[in-house]
Amino acid sequence: xxxxxxxxxxxxxxxxxxxxxxxxxxxxxxxxxxxxxxxxxxxxxxxxxxxxxxxxxxxxxxxxxxxxxxxxxxxxxxxxxxxxxxxxxxxxxxxxxxxxxxxxxxxxxxxxxxxxxxxxxxxxxxxxxxxxxxxxxxxxxxxxxxxxxxxxxxxxxxxxxxxxxxxxxxxxxxxxxxxxxxxxxxxxxxxxxxxxxxxxxxxx
Length: 204
Prior knowledge:
- By secondary structure, the protein is mainly alpha-helical.
- The protein folds into two domains: 45 residues, no CATH class; 147 residues, no CATH class.
- It has nine helices and two strands; from the N terminus they run αααααββαααα.
- The protein has a two-stranded antiparallel sheet.
């Protein structure tokens, strides 16, 4: 525990809790100026208010395929969004996907198996928009990570998967949708189908 008269302004290797403690001690001594100085120097405010990036199905799929449909933050295999939606449409009671469903929201698969694209270093934290800073992760981890860094989350980046060994049921989705074209009346499925068909042409 730091002493109440300690200042240590500029020592950014201090534990965050210790920094707050020194700020509180300064405030107890009615030294708001010193408290402010410690806060600015050691625990400066960073705006994390940043709109979540949106990617087209084609942009997302390019990253999913590159990563072999593997969650780069957990190493778990993920499932192509279109395949999850088909399962949900055909088995709505077993695999609900609607977020406002009366029974308690979507199936956990919609969180832990649904792939999305995340910026490894968030844009709000100085990350770049190039593909090297993009990673496939599940919706669950994407939501948890938000605008935090990997160090702050104590996470690591796992190796990408092999699309030849696991394609996230991408091929199954295209084949099934082509054989059951009524499904493509759903705009969501239609958009993913177009992106998947185009992607398969370039990867085969």
